[in-house]
């Protein structure tokens, strides 16, 4: 049982500036301010309906590899990144940096460097088995979407932070945290009627240099963002059933 020291917070009327939820009530727990949670809840029936609707929406998401050059405003990208950055993270360190690139010259440099790595992968770095597993997706070393898509969001994980005195402090559960944030980013992109591709031009360290990132950041995923080219075709794949992906202990 947690031994909480509950005290009335003298600043209790302050609203949480990071959320639209009205949070006027707060207390101190072990000397730290806590806000009264006021999230939404629904009837059982409504919960079921909403979860069905949400699943149906997510089930429409597909990785698209052909992009229109139609522009997407920075305002939209701002919101997508903010949505991703609401993700939970180990000790709330938020160990991520989202680099959003629309600069055509930089996109070309990224394409050239990514295709060089991919060429080496397809020419021998990938196992025979891996190449076979990719065959049905129709992918190869050519990555025109890296120039066609109006935006590339390169997600960096922050392995550690450096304080004012220059001391390094490791972040916690970095891969888990950044993976969750990327999942939320991908969902936000889909929700906005845009498409993306989870791209991993392995190894990705060329992105550190091209984007001039600090030593504590490592490239994690590269997500082109934009509208699907007309027409676009996606592999005819099927998702596992509930029985295949879940085990229930009732
Ligand atoms: C971690 C990760 C890395 C991926 N890397 C690539 C990639 O480099 N190139 C690519 O074309 N697709 C890549 N994909 C996309 C997968 O091929 C795709 O998600 C999968 O085939 C399922 O298709 P769907 O996203 O349309 O459901 C990657 C997906 C994940 C999750």
Structure description:
- With 250 residues, this protein is of the alpha+beta class.
- It has two domains: 30 residues, no CATH class; 173 residues, NADH Oxidase.
- The chain is 35% helix and 17% strand.
- It contains eight helices and nine strands.
- The strands form three sheets. Strands 4-5-9-8 form a four-stranded antiparallel beta sheet.
- A hairpin with a 5-residue loop joins strand 6 and strand 7.
- The longest helix has 22 residues.
- The chain starts with 5 loop residues before the first strand and ends in a 5-residue tail after the last helix.
- The protein binds flavin mononucleotide.
- Flavin mononucleotide (FMN) binds next to loops.
Provide keyphrases for this structure:
NADH Oxidase; globular; 250 residues; 4-stranded antiparallel sheet; 3-stranded antiparallel sheet; binds flavin mononucleotide; alpha+beta; 9 strands; 2 domains; single chain
Question: Reading side by side through the largest sheet, how are the strands ordered?
Answer: 4-5-9-8
* Proportion in helices: 25-40%
Mean pLDDT, to the nearest integer, reads 92
Tally of individual helices: 8
The molecules bound to the chains, other than polymers, are: flavin mononucleotide
- Look at the helices and sheets and give the structural class: alpha+beta
Biggest β-sheet strands, sense, barrel: 4 strands, antiparallel
Task: Indicate the radius of gyration in whole angstroms.
Answer: 22 Å
- How many independent structural domains? 2
Sequence of secondary-structure elements: EEEHHEHHHEEEHEHEH
Shape: globular
CATH architecture of the largest domain: 3-Layer(aba) Sandwich
């Amino acid at each position: 049982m947690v031994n909480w020291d509950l005290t009335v917070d003298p600043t209790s009327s302050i609203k949480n500036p990071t959320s639209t939820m009205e949070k006027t009530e707060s207390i101190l727990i072990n000397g730290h301010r806590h806000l009264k949670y006021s999230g939404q809840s629904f009837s059982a029936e409504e919960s079921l309906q909403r979860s069905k609707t949400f699943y149906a929406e997510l089930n429409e998401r597909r990785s698209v590899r052909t992009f229109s050059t139609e522009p997407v405003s920075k305002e939209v990208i701002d919101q997508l990144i903010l949505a991703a950055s609401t993700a939970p993270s180990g000790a709330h360190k938020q160990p991520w940096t989202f680099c959003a690139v629309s600069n055509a010259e930089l996109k070309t440099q990224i394409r050239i460097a990514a295709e060089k790595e991919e060429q080496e992968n397809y020419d021998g770095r990938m196992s025979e088995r891996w190449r076979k597993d990719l065959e049905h997706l129709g992918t190869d070393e050519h990555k025109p979407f890296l120039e066609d898509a109006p935006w590339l969001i390169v997600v960096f994980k922050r392995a550690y932070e450096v304080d004012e005195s220059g001391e390094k402090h490791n972040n916690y559960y970095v891969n888990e945290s950044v993976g969750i944030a990327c999942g939320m980013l991908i969902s936000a992109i889909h929700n906005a009627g845009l498409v993306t591709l989870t791209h991993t031009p392995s190894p990705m360290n060329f992105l550190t240099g091209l984007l001039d990132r600090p030593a504590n950041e490592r490239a994690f995923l590269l997500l082109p963002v934009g509208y699907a080219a007309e027409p676009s075709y996606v592999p005819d794949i099927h998702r596992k059933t509930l029985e295949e992906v879940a085990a229930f202990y009732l």
